[in-house]
TrEMBL record:
One of its GO terms (biological process) is tRNA modification. Catalyzes oxygen-dependent 5-hydroxyuridine (ho5U) modification at position 34 in tRNAs. Its EC number is 1.14.-.-. Belongs to the TrhO family. It is an enzyme of class 1 (oxidoreductase). InterPro entries: Rhodanese-like_dom (IPR001763), Rhodanese-like_dom_sf (IPR036873), Rhodanese_C (IPR022111), TrhO (IPR020936), TRHO_N (IPR040503). It catalyses: uridine(34) in tRNA + AH2 + O2 = 5-hydroxyuridine(34) in tRNA + A + H2O. Residues 126-221 form the Rhodanese domain. This is tRNA uridine(34) hydroxylase. Keywords: Oxidoreductase, tRNA processing. The keyword Oxidoreductase applies.
Length: 286
């Protein structure tokens, strides 16, 4: 019974390289695949494998005191979701290109947005007119997003700082803004960047879309499928998931995404079954 874990923890790490070696050896000993990033700010990972091995990974990782409170999010795997294991040290856990702006202590990110559980999010929406602010790459929102969300025109996380500094969202600085992303980590950083830039009422969806979907499925404010960075491509929270994506070639409804067929192009495209093998963006036509 293959399982996949999505997790992160912001905590100061004095020796990320030592943690890297330990995590690599632990995953190899358990036969796990996936991707783990470490930095002086903490750990961020997605790993997958057989249930017993994944459970042991959780137990052993939590034995390290700074990681004892990690919130692991579980999902179903297929067994070949990760062809290999990558454990690396980087300056940032999420590549916003602003490592010097991020402050982290034993309690996590300093100065981030107020955390909301999925239930608290519903309470806030019932009380105030909020703006949902997508903290992911724009292509991820093509197949799923919160209703009426603002989706910044960013191709990669590193584009967010310039996007915020452009003034395009200054009209939101005096109103409630709820940031959200896949598992919560990108919004830990994004919400802190927004607070520093004068956004006065910033929230972050704790646990991200993944945790929201666990609790409310497709009966709440989420619409569509959740894009994931492994072989699954996307996941649905229930059989009732709306299909909001449109095939780039013919406009047919679809929740599937593929890389542009041109190997030099990194564009992700929504495709229907008929065009899945011939995905090509306008810059790289057949």
């Amino acid at each position: 019974m293959p399982k996949i874990l999505l997790f992160y923890c912001f905590t100061p790490l004095a020796d990320p390289e030592a943690i890297r070696l330990w995590q690599r050896d632990l995953c190899e000993s358990l036969g796990l695949g996936g991707r783990i990033l470490l930095s002086p700010h903490g750990i961020n990972g997605t790993v997958g494998g057989e249930l017993a091995a994944v459970k042991r990974y959780v137990r052993k990782t939590r034995e390290y005191a700074p990681f004892s409170g990690i919130d692991f999010k579980w999902s179903e795997g297929t067994g070949d979701d990760f062809p290999r294991l990558s454990v690396r040290v980087r300056p940032e856990l999420v590549s916003f290109g602003a490592p010097d702006e991020l402050q982290v202590d034993e309690g996590g990110v300093v100065g981030g947005g107020e955390r909301l559980t999925p239930a608290q999010l519903h309470e806030l929406v019932a009380q105030k007119e909020v703006t949902f602010f997508d903290g992911r790459n724009a292509f991820e929102a093509q197949i799923g997003r919160f209703a009426d969300a603002v989706v910044p025109d960013v191709e990669a996380t590193r584009d967010f700082v310039a996007e915020l500094d452009s003034g395009a969202y200054d009209h939101l600085k005096g109103s409630p803004v709820v940031t959200y992303c896949t598992g919560g980590i990108r919004c830990e950083v994004l919400s802190s960047l927004m607070v520093k830039r004068g956004f006065s009422e910033v929230y972050q969806l704790d646990g991200g879309i993944a945790r929201y979907g666990e609790e409310f499925g497709d009966s709440g404010l989420w619409e569509g499928s959740l894009y994931v960075f492994d072989k699954r491509g996307s996941v649905q929270f229930s059989p009732d998931a709306a299909v909001i994506g449109e095939c780039h070639a013919c406009g047919a409804p679809s929740s599937s995404m593929r890389n542009c067929h041109d190997l030099s192009c990194r564009t992700q495209l929504v495709v229907c079954e008929a065009h899945a093998e011939s995905a090509a963006c306008p810059e790289h036509p057949h």
